Amino acid sequence: MQMPKPDSHVLSRKDLIVARLKEVLPEDAVISDEAETRAYECDALTAYKCPPLAAVLPSSTQEVSAVLKICHELGVPVVPRGSGTSLAGGALPTADCVLLGVARMNDVIETDYDNRFIRVQTGRTNLSVTGAVEEDGFFYAPDPSSQLACAIAGNIAMNSGGAHCLKYGVTTNNLMGVTIVQMDGTVMEIGGKHLDAGGYDLLGLICGSEGQLGVVTEATLRILPKPEGARPVLMGFDSNEVAGACVADIIKAGVLPVAIEFMDRPCIEATEAFAKAGYPMCEALLIIEVEGSAAEIDEQLGLILQIARRHNPVELREAKDADEAGRIWLGRKSAFGAMGQINDYMCLDGTIPVSELPYVLRRIGEMSKEYGLDVANVFHAGDGNMHPLILFDANKEGDLELCEAFGADILRLCVEVGGCLTGEHGVGIEKRDLMVDQFASADLEAQMAVKDVFDPAWLLNPAKVFPLAVSESRRSVALAAE
Amino acid sequence: MRPETEAELADMISAAKGPVCVQGGGTRGVNLNGDVIETGGLSGITLYEPGSLTLVAQAGTLLAEVEAALDAEGQRLAFEPMDHRGLMGKSGEPTLGGVVAGNVSGPRRVSVGACRDFMLGVRFVDGTGTVVKNGGRVMKNVTGYDLVKLLTGSWGTLGVLTEVSLKVLPKPESAACILIDGLSDADAVAAMAKALGSPFEVTGAAHIPVGLDGTPVTMLRIEGFAGSVDYRAGQVAALFAGQEVRVERNPDAVTKGWAWVRDVVPFHGADGDVWRVSCTPSDGADLAAKIGAEAHLFDWGGGLIWARVAAGTDVRSRLGAFDGHATLVRGTGQPKFQPEPAAVAALSKGLRAKYDPKGILNAGLMG
Predict the structure, then answer these.
(1) Any coiled-coil ranges, and where (chain A) (predicted)?
(2) What average pLDDT does the segment A92-106 reach?
(3) B255 with B274, same domain?
(4) Quick one: average pLDDT of B217-229?
(5) Which among B204, B201, B178, B251 is positioned nearest to B79, based on CA atoms?
(6) In chain A, what percentage of residues exceed pLDDT 70?
(7) B362–chain A Cβ distance below 8 A for any pair
(8) From the CA of B175, how many Å to the nearest CA of chain A?
(9) pLDDT per residue over A302-323, tens digit each?
(10) Which residue of B has its CA nearest to A159?
(11) Which of A57, A330, A357, A427 is 20–30 Å from A65 (CA)?
């Protein structure tokens, strides 16, 4: 993966930059020692590593503003970082950057049940947002699978989703307002405790902009009353087509489950070997969860099971109690861990129209044979967000490159059938160069024009999202101006 | 001008020397100087997959056509777009593009989200005549910046929409409306907060200080499968035990009642300016008192105030500083949209300069 050549002018002024940062931050919030900056050399896309010039850990919006002002003045690129769980390299540093971590900013600022929001500093982890309100019967809906570790800052940057977004939407649908610091240090409030934008929907634009438009330091998040209960049902089918048709029929019948998870045979086999959840060995397995009171759950599951039976399932398993519900979810929740036990793997994130599911799975199977690499599929079936896991051996010469090429082909396939490169992980560096497969140059120009407005010098997270060749003229003009 | 294709539209805009006024059905009260570009020629549903909850249509497609197609499959636009015709005194047929351009939503916004939350993709022609696409037709998509949100609610000032894709939802088989009589504005806002904060999935919460019989009525809506609606309507009614509570289960009455709120029917035909104030719900009652309107009502649990005032009333100065914004929906003499703080206004202006460098698209409408 190519990264831009570090700016030698910046590298040569490291001492000055660090000294200036120390003027506005406590001693322990500026990390410049080479051994210590290594802690920030990568995120969860561990194949790529590069220690930053320095890392800073501000504790307040004011400190973030002071840092950005200095970096802006000195022309230093800044890479923002939440918890570093990005699978797309969204927080990968460059050698000439100041890495700005928001981890120390994790307070709850305000909780308001009458107006159903919580305001937090964005270093707070996703799960601990729910943790702050669940005793009072509320929760924060977006639930990316890294929710124990991932920060709200990163969720906003990548517009994170999760297993339950069919009903509750993704981050952008649950974000009411932010405090954002622009690259020049200007602090702005966008949105708030009200429901809609008074002018352009800048909040919608900021969410999912991968830390390229500003650093979000505080967020007002919508919280929801916890449903009375939830219950999953598991069903197995002897073909992907039938499982796909069953999902479509359920949705057409007017049931809106909170989650519809899909696993294919390779995935079932791997998780079964690892987690022993007692899944049936079949071609396709669905886990469908519905919510409500006990009677409401019965009503919805009754309809779902009736539809499922029409598709001749090889297995239908209802959860009678919490323990059985836990067992139904166990395999799905262990899927990634199970894969990690078998091998190194790359997790993809393309989305496809649900109707294309059987075709896409068949094509992935064929490509798997061509590339000689195994692939297992877990899938948010209700919304078409695929997570093919390609297995490879990182110690084997050329295997990573082969795996990346296979992954790129799968993502191109997603685009070809009317889908997209990434459903919830973000573009980062990982899918940067594939953007030209999804977007025409005018489409990319329109997006880059937004960055021109928010960050004219292209200093924030500059080498992400857009292919380097496409963004080069902008980045080099900005460099020359400085 | 009435382009029949996206390419024709692009040519017209690229050739335009002066301001153009973008118009769908012309029902939402945007009347600006300049050559009118009607989008009605860009019409038709391009793709509708009920099993994927996805609809793609050209922007000039009549809303009625879209709603009929969805209805045939037992689905709907869940954000419940308002029909502005009665309020604005307009005739004509609303278009899907007009709904999206105005981010037009209704009472269900409080639970399921606004039009922008259901938008999956757009194609548009910017102010230079360049065709741009963003998003797509899938529900989860974080590929690149979300220009879909930017264009939704931009009222034609950043580009002319040519095609939009939306997430649609099943139409529930049943609905109920819980009615509480006689509450003051402040008590009603508190009651709505209580209901919306319950786990019973309230999909509408409105308060009408002067109802059909001249007394206040607070409305709470429950939707879903029949058994579930029975159960939840009972639970919500029980939250207000000891008060004057009724449960309306007649489907036509429920539909009509919420259309009445959605379209602000009580203001139809009455004189004066109409303002729409978006605020923190619990501030609703106080803010309404500050406005001192001739008539007002609350939607979104208090987070949306509709106010009818004497023509020319400066509602923004009456409100002072608050969390939210006020839009002049009907009336003249003041900016339609709330002026933004300087740093935000600079960004909005910067975006307009990029997308419409000639400054011709619905010029001046959004600052």
Answers:
(1) none
(2) 97
(3) no
(4) 96
(5) B204
(6) 99
(7) no
(8) 14
(9) 999 999 999 999 999 999 888 9
(10) B142
(11) A427
